[in-house]
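User: Hi! I'm working on a homework problem where we have to compare a predicted structure to a textbook description. Could you give me the structure for the chain below?
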Amino acid sequence: MPEQIIVEGRTARLTNGDGAACEADIGAWVRQINRFSVAGLTEEPIPDNVKWIVPCGSTEIFIVELKPELRRMLWLSKDSPAPYGPEATATERRLATPYVVLKIPFRRGRVVPRVEVFYRNEPLSRIDGPGGALYWSNLLNVSPNAHGCTAWFCTQYLATEAMSPGRAGALSAVVNHLWGGHFNRSSEFHEGQSAFGKAGLDGVDPRVTDVDRWEAESIQDPRFILSVPWRPADLDVRKLIELELCANNIAALVPGSAAELANPLMRAARPAAATEDPA
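Assistant: Happy to help. Predicted structure tokens:
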């Protein structure tokens, strides 16, 4: 008798008909299947600066890390006639940033408007613990605790960016949108606060809470930015990914029950072979 796998509740049982049998938790079984399945043969190469790609169905979560850099940013002018919008004016600033970590989620190949931006003084080395810990930025266009995110970055006008095909093109467009847009006070007026304002209220290093001083320190020594004691965001990369999965109604990292296995089975199903009526 050929082997049979009987799936019931949260247990899978293997039998070969001669009395020998074994059983396992479905979640552990699926993890073993994944472990010995070939992965990574994606149609597109992994884009630059990507640290993690977490796919599940039509959802993909990219964790991107940008290296420290002395950047040119268009920052809201002190004499701007408006705090944001088409009448607002900006002044080019030279501002240093530490390692910048972005969460960029996709659904069915399109960027989901739940991009988040964090800082670190060291490169990511783990998905969790200190090596994956995330910190608040000091950027005007990042909104703390807004739209279901911890450090939300608005991508409303992402479509205005030149975008090459594929995930790499979309990721580059998000990065260009972050640094190429005008840094203004839209977050204060629409979401109640920006990460720049939060840094000031939290008493972060005064070298990065006043834009004039931030620029002066950046020009003198861009590496100073890696000595700033940024405030912890109280989450790491793993937690950030898990929160995004939950936002997409993905509760389990692997199927753990017969019911959860049923959905992919039905998606892959073909018509069952006809069975003879024993009567």
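For your comparison, note the following. The longest helix spans residues 166-180. DSSP finds seven helices and 15 strands in the chain. Good luck with the assignment!
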